[in-house]
Amino acid sequence: MKLVFLCFSFLIATITNAQIKLVNDFDNANVDTAVSVANYHNNTIAFTPYLDKFNTENVWFYFGVTGFRRDTIITFLMDYNNNYYPPNYPVVSFNGKDFFNVKAIQRGNINRFYVLPVSDTVYVSTGYPYSYSRLKTFVSSLAGNHYVAIDSSQLTQGGRCIYLLSFTNPSVSSRNKKTVWIIARQHAFESLSNYVVEGMMFYLLSGEESAEELLNDYVFRIVPMVDIDNVVAGQSGRMGFPRDFNRDWQSPIHTEIVTLQKWIRKKSKRHYDMFFDIHCTYPGGTSTNVFSYFDIYGGGSCSQNMNMFWNRFYKFANYRPKIIVDTVPFADGMSADFYNARKYKQLQFSTTIECDWNVNSHGTVWQISDFYSLGENILKAIPAK
Ligand SMILES: [Zn+2]
Q: Which CATH code, of 3.20.20.80, 3.40.50.150, 2.60.40.3120, 3.90.550.10, is assigned to 12-125?
């Protein structure tokens, strides 16, 4: 009798749970166990971000659900194992495109947030997603632009195009132009860094006089997404096996880093001036602002240049990074920032900038428009000649 009851209960659970379905058939999606633990009656979806054998950190989640009850709130329960991983302000969308923040509450190892469903499908993510598909669409929109050259000749380990986008005014001789390198997304979960880089590119093409001057005086070499394969797979990327991308610059094992080093060597023979590597903090971090590393300068002229740069940034942004720190090299491998500082002594500076997921300088949660402004103000702080 007991067995029959158990079988009956299992059948009921299977039927009711089957009404909640997972949507994860898109680039950059990540979830592990959401459907198996979904509870239709309580409208509750418990989940864990998925890891594969090359990834060690389950920071990133991004998936949709459908088939839930529309007559009450949905409760999402994220299971996590590191206090820095769960977002304080995860994002939600009803169409898979436009996202907004909700507040999450952390207790024990569960990060809980609620959504009032106003459509049949709800998408949730650690933060504003930025997929490889989105980058490809953005790059297509630049095709034929007078100021932009697109190099998609080099491939990732997985056979996807790595984009190198060069911004300059080709009508001005390149003889005296300086070169600025900007890279982002060495760590796949750090989606927000792509909005910073998009903000930079929008500004360069804005037609503003200050942007035109920069295009006359500089060549901006931008690689907006480095660890593309992990972005597509929806993995977190950072501290991945066998080596983190941003610890791989001494003697690289990743095809993508070999390519970047070759590009920088070939395309920076003269007047290489600055290097920026754009990252994000962990979503559960408490830095409350942007912060900036510069690796090896120890108070020398490059440190002064860096500080002067952030003073100029302050004039436009009305805030400075909360932390501007001169760090020692990482013990577990060489970063891009350190590699460029050491190899290219002519640089004014080489730096890593970390963006935050939480509260911005206005005391509200960072929005995409804030990341755009951050990108724009970084470039405005680069002085035209
Ligand atoms: Zn990073």
A: 2.60.40.3120
